[in-house]
Structure formats: C-alpha cells, structure tokens
TrEMBL record:
<protein>
    <submittedName>
        <fullName>3-phosphoshikimate 1-carboxyvinyltransferase</fullName>
    </submittedName>
</protein>
Length: 423
C-alpha cells in the first residue's frame, strides 16, 4: 500500500469495539446458563477466532450485524471438540481458554497461526500445573498446547509478569477449583475479567495488586454493550496530535483506569486532548475525545504505567519521534513476546524512516524532532505495527510503501477506510 503524507485530519469518528471485552463476553456468555446478548461486538479476526473456538466446543453463537447471541450451557456445558481448536493470531484466546479447558471433563488441543506458535505459554502452564492441571506443549512452552481436563485445586500465584491474560487464565480455572484462588501481579493489569465475571455472578475480591476468585456454582447470562477500544483510538489520538491543522473527535472511547495510560501520557507530553461526555457503559467508563494538533515533548514511561498502555507503545513511539526531546520507555520487555518482537520492529522500521530510535533490553530511547522520510515498511504481520507505521508515514516528508497491511483486520478492520474519510 502506498501512503502519501497528509496535511490535516478533521472530523469525527467512532472507533471499533474493545477487543479484550469482546473476547471475554463470548467466553463468559458460553459458560453462563442461558442467552447472553452482546451489542457492538468487535468483528475483528481475533474475536471471530474466539467465536469459532466456542462453536467447536458445542456452543450455539449467532451474529446479526454487530450483535452476538450466545446460548450458554453453563460451567459444565462445553463438549469435547472433534479437532484442535484454532485460535488464529489471538494470544488472548489461547491463554484464557487454557484456564477454562484445564477444568473440563475432556481433553483438547489449542493452537493457532505461525505467530501464536512462537508466543510463550509457560506463563500459563506453570500456574495451571500448580492447580494440578495436566498440560503438555511443544518444548513445554509453545502451542500446540494439549490439555487433559480434570479436577483443579485453588492456589495463590505470585505472577512474575503483569499480564491480564495470565491473571484471567488462572481466575477462570479458579471458577472450577476446590478452594479460592488468588493471583498477585507486580503491577495491576487490565481488569475486564474481574469486572465482567462479577457481572455474571462470580465472587471476585481485590486487594492491592491481588485478585481472589471463589469457586463458582453457576454464572448468569448478561446483556452487554461493548465500548470502543482505546487501543484502536490511540492511532487516531496520535494522528490528530502530530498531523498539522488537525481537529478530531473520537467517540465512545473506553477509559478504564487500567487501560487509559496512553491518554495520560499523551496529555503529559503536552497533547491538546479534551475528555468529553464521561459516562458508564456496562460498568466500564467511556468518553469522547477531542484531539487537536499540538507540540509534544518527550517523557519517561516505566513501571506501573507500562501495563496500562502496553499495546499502544508502537504508536506512542511514533508520537515520540515528533516530540521535542528524549522519550524513554523502560520495563517493557513484554513487547518482545507480542505478535512480533515489537522492540525490534519499532526500532528497525522507524530507523528506516530516519527516526533516532535506540532499542534497549526492555524498551526504547527515542530522540524526537528529526523529520521522518518515506521508506518501504514491514508490518511483521502485526496489526499494531501496521497502523502505527501508517500514522508515521502520513507525517513523513515523502511517500512510503507499507507491506502486508491486511493484518489490520485482527483488531481494526475499517482502519484505512476511516482514515481516508478524515483526510
Ligand atoms: O487480556 C487481554 O485481553 C490482553 C492483555 C494484554 O496481553 P498480556 O496479558 O500478555 O499483557 C494485551 O497485550 C492483549 O492485547 C490483550
Ligand atoms: C498482543 C495483542 O493481542 P493478543 O495477545 O491477544 O494476540 C494485541 O492485540 O496487541
């Protein structure tokens, strides 16, 4: 795809629905007894993988425009799949499912595309084995992941990583355990599982960075409206800030405190962003954002902030290239185990454009203010890289060629159409 530099982005847009919340709504709906109705579901490839897998597990799921009807069969209502469960490109699907499937009365195999088969699974295998689950994996750490379902015991797991996927996997297994299960994280990761499981009737208690779940008899169906995804909004937030003469209103953005790091950091960088119409949608805080062209300055991002903006770091690195001074990103080694090694990908591609970007073991150092020029850019089949590089290319001094842009359909199928409408 050829991307030519743009002069301005103006108008208003609704961004796609939240990927994390969409996944969980299908999963928990399948485990509840009765019909769960999900409005504004994200029809991106990752969430469609979750639907596909639950259909393989015997759940009837129907789609009507952006509404999904899930006929849940209860905590013990899933049936043995006839083939391996293909989770596509979705780490969330594999890891959350591994917790649920460890407690079933049948065996199953989880797998996915080439990228999924390289992502670390020891992080869920280790705690699930402590709960007495029986699992095996390629080299004991990669998909395909084979699970012999059975009886589980509650544990207190102190996780070495702040990962909502690890936490959610253990909490979901904990629904079925013979005693309460606690997960303690180094920093709080996104809490959609805790919020939504409570709405479905589970007993969840939180203390500091710990969450405890009680064994559960039954989950009750819900009607859910999924808010817009701040991780998708981030591309337009940065685009609006760095593209000259821009004025964008981004409607229906989820600003859950465990997800809004990108908003707070862009404000700290000097971004002109107004938070409008704050409201609650299905227990999740939501707002509209008005974003105008701004002069940004560099910042340091580390520690507890990292899990609140982990998926937004590729586009934050683009913002940093257009900011005055140095931006330091530390404690973000998790970026190395996403759809690709995002530290290598950001460093390689932004350097090709003339950006002053250094990769460190656990992050990036970016000296902003050097104009970016066009280049032939690789997406690494990573949706977030494709969209972040598009925003960089729009603001380069010459056209760029983006290779493999179709991966945006993982989380943001109409990304290029929306961008074209605003330019
Ligand atoms: O739980 C979730 O929905 C997610 C958690 C994060 O991953 P980790 O749990 O690996 O940090 C995030 O990067 C991913 O896009 C979605
Ligand atoms: C890392 C991501 O998702 P997942 O882990 O579900 O593949 C992402 O969407 O950036």
């Amino acid at each position: 795809m050829l991307i030519k530099p743009h002069q301005q982005l103006r108008g208003s847009l609704s961004i796609p629905s939240d990927k994390s919340i969409s996944h969980r709504s299908v999963m928990f709906g399948s485990l509840a007894k009765g019909e769960t109705i999900i409005h504004n579901f994200l029809m991106g490839d990752d969430c469609l993988s979750t639907i596909h897998v639950f259909r393989q597990l015997g759940i009837s799921i129907t789609l009507e425009k952006d509404t999904v009807y899930v006929k849940g069969k209860g905590l013990h209502g899933l049936s043995a799949p006839l083939a391996p469960l293909d989770c596509g490109n979705s780490g969330t699907t594999v890891r959350l499912l591994s917790g649920i499937l460890s407690a079933q009365s049948f065996s199953s195999t989880l797998t996915g595309d080439a990228s999924i088969q390289k992502r670390p699974m020891a992080r869920v295998i280790t705690p699930l084995r402590q709960m007495k689950a029986t699992l095996s994996a390629k080299e004991d750490r990669f998909c395909p992941l084979h699970i012999e379902g059975g009886h589980l015991e509650g544990i207190h797991y102190v996780s070495p990583v702040a990962s909502a996927q690890v936490k959610s996997c253990i909490l979901l297994a904990g629904l079925y355990a013979s005693s309460p299960t606690t997960v303690t994280e180094p920093f709080i990761s996104r809490d959609h599982t805790e919020r939504m499981l409570e709405a479905f009737g589970a007993k969840v208690t939180r203390l500091g960075t710990s969450v405890t779940i009680s064994p559960c008899e039954e989950l009750y169906p819900c009607e859910i409206t999924v808010p817009g995804d701040i991780s998708s909004a981030a591309f337009f937030m940065v685009a609006g800030l760095i593209t000259p003469n821009s004025d964008l209103t981004i409607r229906n953005v989820g600003i859950n405190p465990t997800r809004r790091g990108i908003l707070d950091v862009l404000l700290e960088m000097g971004g002109d962003i107004k938070i409008l119409n704050e409201r609650l949608v299905c227990g999740e805080p939501v707002c509209d954002l008005r974003v105008r062209t701004s002069s940004l300055h560099g910042v340091t991002i580390e520690g507890a902030t990292i899990p609140t903006l982990i998926d937004e770091i590729p586009v934050l690195a683009v913002a940093a290239c257009f900011a005055k001074g140095k931006t330091l990103i530390k404690d973000a080694s998790e970026l190395r185990v996403k759809e690709c090694d995002r530290i290598v990908a950001i460093h390689t591609e932004l350097s090709k454009m003339g950006g002053a970007v250094l990769a460190t073991e656990d992050g990036l150092i970016i000296e902003g203010g050097k104009p970016l020029h066009g280049a032939t850019l690789e997406t690494y089949h990573d949706h977030r890289m494709a969209m972040a590089l598009t925003i960089a290319a729009l603001n380069a001094t010459s056209p760029s060629q983006l290779l493999g842009e179709e991966c945006v359909r993982i989380s943001f199928p109409n990304f290029f159409e929306l961008l074209a409408e605003l330019s």
